[in-house]
Amino acid sequence: MESIFDDRGLIISRDDATILLISDIHLGFEETISQEKGVEFPPQHPVILQRIENLVTKYNVSYLYIIGDVKHTIIADSFYNWEILPEFMANLVEIVETTVIPGNHDGDLGALLPRDVILTDVHGIVVGSRDENVGLLHGHSWPSTDVLDAKLIVVGHNHPTIRRFRDASVPEIGRSSRRRFGGIIPVIIQSKLDKNCARQNVGILENPDDTDCTMITLPSFNEMFYGVPVNYSTSDFYGPLFENKCAYLRESDVYSIEGLFLGTVDWLRERFNEI
Hints:
Blueprint: E1 2-6, E2 9-13, E3 18-22, H1 29-37, H2 45-59, E4 63-66, H3 79-95, E5 97-100, E6 118-119, E7 125-127, E8 134-136, H4 145-148, E9 152-155, E10 161-167, E11 179-194, H5 195-202, E12 212-217, H6 240-243, E13 253-256, E14 261-264, H7 265-272
Parallel strand pairs: 3-4, 4-5, 5-6, 8-9, 9-12
Antiparallel strand pairs: 1-2, 2-3, 7-8, 10-11, 11-12, 11-13, 13-14
Helix pairs in contact: 2-3
């Protein structure tokens, strides 16, 4: 099994197929911004669809898995959801076989999906063979027993980023120190998951022969959507696996969306803590 990070997604190549994993596309986010702030942005769904198609073509992807938060509004009852989302998903399933693992923003999502789109249980699914299986879970709920038995678990939910500021002071002309926003960089987080910690919390037997696995947290696939700044000393991840200390954000490794290792969260906080 080989894996590649590209354009905020994870591509996994197996002997029998290549799969694409993306998370948190939050369709309709720009509509919410327009309503709340009065600022208009171009529709994002055509851009998102094109980026997915590019990855499918580039890597000859057979299956797409969206790991939660297909839509931005938690409830389905909005003009955008009914006018745009069904058509978007219908176009998507024409490009690649698509499965959705629902997230916390995906209330009543099934009513908006074409029949060809597979909607799974909120506690996740496992893909791949027994020796190279991968658990997929949005991250806002506890994983199923099968997901906890996987060799690798991939989640979304927290939209990890590095957020930077710049000092705009110019002492030569008497301008005092002023901080200016320096941009947001989406990143991928790799954590060690204590499986028996999770098993204990969900009330199933611990397995002394299968104690740890790697858990990857993907950033939001929507380029407009930001999330948790991992370089802030006060930041932490949401969801039961992190909140119950089955995985520790501070000890996690940080990668760029192209797969370049950037350091641990602790290391980044020591050098780029913006608070």
